[in-house]
Amino acid sequence: QVQLQESGPGLVKPSQTLSLTCTVSGGSISSGSYYWSWIRQPAGKGLEWIGRIYTSGSTNYNPSLKSRVTISVDTSKNQFSLKLSSVTAADTAVYYCARGHYGAPFDYWGQGTLVTVSS
Amino acid sequence: QSALTQPASVSGSPGQSITISCTGTSSDVGSYNLVSWYQQHPGKAPKLMIYEVSKRPSGVSNRFSGSKSGNTASLTISGLQAEDEADYYCCSYAGSSTNYVFGTGTKVTVL
Asked: Which residue among A25, A70, B50, B82 is least enclosed by CB atoms within 10 Å?
């Protein structure tokens, strides 16, 4: 059974870049027709899709975040990563990584990691 | 792209059936049979309950069912149980520019 685990700093200063990594276990990140996504959830609020990457390297981003987001993949480490630049307090949220495939965009999720933007 | 509209809360007694609506537009829910539903308990990650409007992943109870009519998708929980008390979110594919949009979320309370 595939498992995902987010990791990265829990505190980021305003205007800096948020960086998170998702490590996939229980299967190769390159196997099957899957893609790998990031989703976030501010405290007490709803879910927001950030973007996704295929292991080919092809990406899609939420238009509202596109100018600040970069998602990359490292198949040798079975990991994919998120970078969000120029963060503000509005980017404070629990960040989830997830696996998806056609029809089921987020079928396996990581446990989530809280990132707080504060000086 | 605005979030899909869900009722803020829905409640029911044990054993009853409840339905959660998810209203979008002709650009998302109305255009694609790619609506999925997620259950989220407090402090936990969301869990996929329904995909492609009405399909259930392996291991999800058949008390959960999904449907769609026009721009509105629905999740029905039959034989409501205490463990069903959670937040529920719908999600729809919205085309190659927007990709995915989530619903506003619905808190289900078992009375």
From this structure: B82
> Tokens representing A51?
């973007």
CB pairs under 8 A between A and B: 63
Instruction: Report which of A59, A60, A87, A63 is spatially closest to residue A73, judged by C-alpha positions.
Output: A59
Tokens of A23: 């490590």
Q: Are A110 and A5 in contact (CB under 8 A)?
A: yes
Comparing CB atoms, the residue among A47, A103, A107 nearest residue B102 is A47
Are A58 and A108 in contact, with CB atoms under 8 Å apart? no
What pLDDT tens digit does each residue of chain A (119 aa) get? Answer: 999 999 999 999 999 999 999 999 999 999 888 999 999 999 999 999 999 999 999 999 999 999 999 999 999 999 999 999 999 999 999 999 999 998 899 999 999 999 999 99
Q: Name the minimum distance, in Å, from the CA of A47 to any CA of chain B.
A: 6
* Residue A64 distance to chain B (closest CA, Å): 9
Contact status of B57 with chain A (Cβ, < 8 Å):
yes
